[in-house]
User: Which sequence fits this backbone?
């Protein structure tokens, strides 16, 4: 088989794979999408996860319930006006700052077309006026990070928390 024949076979296979991935992304989700908040119900993570999931559900066609929370302190250095008279933890624990973020993770085997569809839906949800308003009401700010920026944020936070665990001497039982 000559070089042109091999090239044609490779290109035909590549087109078939791309067409299949595009078809899968158009059909997806064909069943409910499960979004998991790895924290107890009623906390800030749960609340924000439910707000994001509800709007993402609307975008993808899936319903979600919402919860409630009472703030005892904010993790930002400065007070958050939309939260009301809630002090920053930094007022008591000097140097304390934790920036809350919510990410969506998928299996490494997830086709790129599905990852792209999820990123597009998440961007639309995060930048919508109603999501910004809902998050502002609970003292949060909506932002969307592209996958590369999200990986960098995860790496930075993992490094920071790894150092906190080392400095504290904490051990896993």
Assistant:
């Amino acid at each position: 088989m000559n070089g042109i024949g091999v090239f044609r076979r490779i290109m035909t296979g590549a087109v078939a794979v791309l067409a299949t991935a595009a078809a899968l992304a158009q059909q997806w989700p064909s069943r409910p999408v499960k979004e998991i908040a790895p924290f107890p119900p009623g906390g800030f993570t749960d609340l924000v996860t439910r707000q994001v999931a509800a709007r993402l559900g609307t975008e993808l066609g899936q319903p979600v319930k919402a919860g409630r929370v009472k703030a005892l302190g904010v993790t930002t250095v400065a007070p958050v006006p939309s939260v009301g008279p809630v002090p920053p933890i930094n007022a008591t624990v000097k140097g304390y700052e934790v920036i809350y973020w919510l990410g969506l993770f998928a299996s490494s085997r997830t086709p790129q077309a599905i990852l792209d569809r999820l990123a597009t839906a998440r961007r639309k949800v995060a930048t919508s006026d109603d999501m910004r308003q809902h998050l502002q009401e609970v003292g949060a700010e909506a932002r969307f990070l592209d996958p590369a920026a999200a990986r960098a944020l995860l790496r930075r936070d993992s490094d920071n928390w790894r150092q906190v665990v080392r400095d504290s001497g904490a051990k896993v039982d």
